[in-house]
Amino acid sequence: MQSPALFLPGWGAPATLYEPGLPPEWRALEPPSFAASGGSLAAYSRWLDVELHRRGRSRLGGHSMGAALAILAAAECPELVERLVLVAPAGLPLQKPIAASIVDFLRQVARGIYPRDAAARAFAAVARAPRAAWALADQVRALDLRRECARIREAGIPVLVVGCSSDTLVTRRHSRALADALGADYRELTTAGGHMWMLGEHDALARVLA
Predict the structure, then answer these.
(1) Which of 86, 162, 198, 207 has the smallest set of CB atoms within 10 Å of its CB?
(2) What DSSP assignment string belongs to the chain?
(3) Do the Cβ atoms of 24 and 77 come closer than 8 Å?
(4) Which domains does the chain have, with CATH numbers?
(5) Is residue 170 within 8 Å of 195, Cβ to Cβ?
């Protein structure tokens, strides 16, 4: 029997956003809301810890903040993590201004790349708890998980890091540096999709998870 395969969304993204690109055995988890977490990254880590202890040893995938949560979980409880697939992972300090990321997001919505129903849910979640949302964003941007990466490397957990040539938030340099810290395999996609490339490349996401 295969171990559970769990995918963790990025900041503010609903689980449904990733489902079209998940292989059949994978399930995207819905993280706590900004309001429920109080904007604390530690609250998300506690939530994931409960999920892992309930499900047992699992394969973990994640995008952006979700990938950072997967790193934290594997460093804390390596016995519960069979394998990591980290897509455009946060985990080292990010340089791109939040305002520039918001502009990119609005362009994706306007072009129909980011589904409008998912965008509406994201906007509503921020509107309900704006201080918590931005506090969480600041914590994710400032993360430096090199010590956690060293623990994962020592534990011998197989890791794949997936970067994208057009990503201006989690740049290819950032992704490669995190892969080096983890002792991970690194794969780079050449696509115009940027940080949210998987929205237009469902098959590519399925391949890297498989």
Answers:
(1) 207
(2) -PPPEEEE--TT--GGGTGGGS-TTEEE--PPPHHHHTT-HHHHHHHHHHHHHHH-SEEEEEETHHHHHHHHHHHH-GGGEEEEEEES---S---S-HHHHHHHHHHHHHTTSS-HHHHHHHHHHHHHSHHHHHHHHHHHHT---HHHHHHHHHHT--EEEEEETT-SSS-HHHHHHHHHHHT-EEEEE--TTGGGGGGT-HHHHHHHH-
(3) no
(4) 5-209 (3.40.50.1820)
(5) yes
Q: What is the pLDDT of residue 178?
A: 98
Amino acid letter for position 58: S
d(CA 102, CA 12): 12
DSSP state of 31: P
Phi, psi angles (nearest 5°) of residue 79: -70, -15
In the numeric block, which tokens belong to residue 80? 């519960």
